[in-house]
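User: Could you walk me through two proteins back to back? I'd like the raw sequence and the structure tokens for each, with a short line separating them so I can tell where one ends and the next begins.

Assistant: Of course. Protein one, sequence then structure:
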Amino acid sequence: KKKKKKKKKKDTASDFLRMIILLGPPPRTKALSGWAKEKNLHEIKVPLWLKPRIPALKRIPLRPRYGQSACLIDSWCYIFGGQHADGSPPTQEECFLRLNLTTLEWQNIFTPAELIRNNHSSIAHNGVCYFFGGTYNKQAVNDLIVYDPVPERIYRIEPNKLDDPNHQPPSPRYGHTMGAHNNFLYIFGGYAMDGKKYEYTNSLHSFNLETKVWTKIELENPPKERVHHSSFMNGNDMWIFGGRTP
């Protein structure tokens, strides 16, 4: 008897959507593009991941990385720092990139070697990018890096070069988060250097963008110490989710 050939299962819209939601961009992009032509993407009522075709950056290879950060100013997405799969840091030419979300074109921003960071935090506030802490040469740091697109310059604010008795900068750390509200930046948690060893922390510090003074904020009923969590600001509130605890 001839064996009946099994019918090949057709990809349906629901199958594709399920795959996209769980795994990210599907491997069979041709099928997706064909399906997308038949459906108005604006009518889709469920989350959908799409992988845009972005031309490579000329002269500079874009290698996979992790531990980087991203923030948004107008139509520009800024990608900063991180490290490659082999643990090596990005070069000065590839450390700081920005993507124009309208034209989908990459540009690179040359970064001094001493400012390359990994596992730091970042936020865009009032048209300026701020990057705090992370690791440099496999050691945690606690300086603040500032990138101002107009005029285009990147510089560092040292944490301990301020003669003010109220100045209380955060200790060197990584895996923390940062928020911004009004004229202040806020740093919470992370894996911080305490003397000669790293410890989980739940400390909260604020940075005054006018006076350049760090202040440690004493908390009532503080959350548990944590690292690699996520957070966001909503009005006057800082919301914190998850992370790794001791």
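----
Protein two, same layout:
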Amino acid sequence: MVYSTRNAALLHVQKLGCSEVTGLSPSPTNSQQLLVTSRDGTLSVWDMTDWTLMKRLTVGSSVSHLLISRSTEHIFLVTRGTESGNTITTIQKHCAATLSHISNSLTIKKPCDNFRISSCGNFIMFTRDTRVRVINTSTCATFTRFTHDMDLCAVALHPTRNLAAVADVNGRICLLNDWIVKGCVEVEVQHWHANQVGGMGFAPRSDVLFSGGAESVLVKWLDGQPQFLPRIGGGIQHVLCRSLEIL
């Protein structure tokens, strides 16, 4: 379903012809095209002017994340399959213009989640249990950037600054300053949520962080102080921030 960001009017309903959708984004090379990833292992391209299917590629295993940075000519797909009964996560690099598969950047044989790409497109962050891991998309080198004392459940990257937020299952949010630079990372802890944080997002062009969870409250963090928008109507699982709105 497509809604207007001005008045929330329903503009269009489109059947995508795939299983559960895991990623939606305008193409970085053509704003009139929509990229769609799905659990059935497909990557589709839709023309948003007349809603015709332009291309559908089978990329292999189930796609869990679609990672796009406007600063790079590549897009990245996180796929999941099984090997000897174990879950295998693979990060695929594709050309943004043609969608052709370039290479597999990394294969991970342990459970991991919460993949996010930096604004420059050079780094991908993800969580594995209590650890924050980072991938250099150019060299495929990986390193642990932060180790916590609880399992981590959500990640948000600042759109312009070298700042990341990670949240744990007890509702704490850790701000990681200079997370790309090697060395000791500076950590600031914020805590209001009584339950696991469902989603977080930084507002564009500011240091405001929004978070939400099972409490049905959207929390606005500024200088470490929370402000609240209560009674959202249900638990918050994802927070997406754009220039004029929060979704």
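The chain has a mean pLDDT of 87.

Let me know if you want the two compared in more detail.
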